[in-house]
Amino acid sequence: MEADAIAAARSAAAGQQAMPRPLLSARGVTLQYRTPHHIVTATWRVDFDVLPSDRFILLGPSGCGKSSLLKAVGGFLAPAEGRLTINGRPIVQPGPDRMMVFQEFEQLLPWKTVLGNVLFPMRATGRFRGREAMERARDMIARVGLAKFADAYPHMLSGGMKMRVAIARAMAMEPDILLMDEPFAALDALTRRRMQEELLGLWDQLRFTMLFVTHSIEEAILVGSRMLVLSPHPGQVRAELNAEAFHHGNVDQAAFGALSKRIHRLLFEDRGTPT
Ligand SMILES: Nc1ncnc2c1ncn2[C@@H]1O[C@H](COP(=O)(O)OP(=O)(O)OP(=O)(O)O)[C@@H](O)[C@H]1O
């Protein structure tokens, strides 16, 4: 889908209101890996804009390049073609303005307390020091509802609490965007649903911007405010959809089913792949 078509879809979705300036922009992003024998094209000329406070979903089948797009936004993979910008500046390397929250939140350091985990990147990067770091860390921990657990260790926490710590840790760095790569993929269905609710609850409080990768249609609709639907390998934009109507507590089953069917068709209709 071309940039103009995306802009048109977006203005229709917003009821023709003026859109805020995008925080993150992808224009014609082709991502490739060079192996000793050939070049693997992961995505093909992908366009999207993430607006402030979006819960923006990258949705597509396995191998369509979702994680590669996240890596590129993180600054770990340079586009072979096209441009990625954050706040109008090209993304050329990793930076604390884009914090990655990993799967299962297992990046928490087991030998450090909740407070120690939140302080760790602040101090290690030198972004915040001494008293300021301590105050910020305690404030973030309180904002995610874990003030009483500041001195607890990760093994003493539930999955949902660990997620809150992981988000507090990322948010304490004051990023512009949180990058989440299938954070709930390994969980059973009930736990996954609870974690999705927890994440949305936190978003209601903190209104952070997130770029969230999933291959679950249901998760995309529940968690996302907007989503980019990508074709099978190599990932191309099939559509950009608005899912704000399904924000939690507001699920109309018939509309949910209709959107889910529409996405399914978009994902699995065979339209051929570029040569
Ligand atoms: N380091 C790499 N070297 C070579 N090819 C790679 C590398 N990483 C990914 N690829 C290829 O790039 C394509 C996109 O991979 P990517 O992991 O981004 O897809 P994905 O949509 O995130 O998949 P999944 O949902 O299975 O995680 C795949 O064909 C994959 O094999």
UniProtKB/TrEMBL annotation:
Any single Pfam family the record assigns to this protein: ABC_tran
SMART domains in the cross-refs: AAA
Domain ABC transporter, first and last residues per copy: 26-259
Molecular-function GO term, any one: ATP hydrolysis activity
Database matches in CDD domains: ABC_NrtD_SsuB_transporters
Keywords annotated in UniProt: ATP-binding, Nucleotide-binding, Transport
InterPro entries in alphabetical order: AAA+_ATPase, ABC_transporter-like_ATP-bd, ABC_transporter-like_CS, ABC_transporter_ATP-bind
Family per similarity comment: Belongs to the ABC transporter superfamily.
Name the record gives this protein: ABC transporter ATP-binding protein
Gene source species: Elioraea tepida
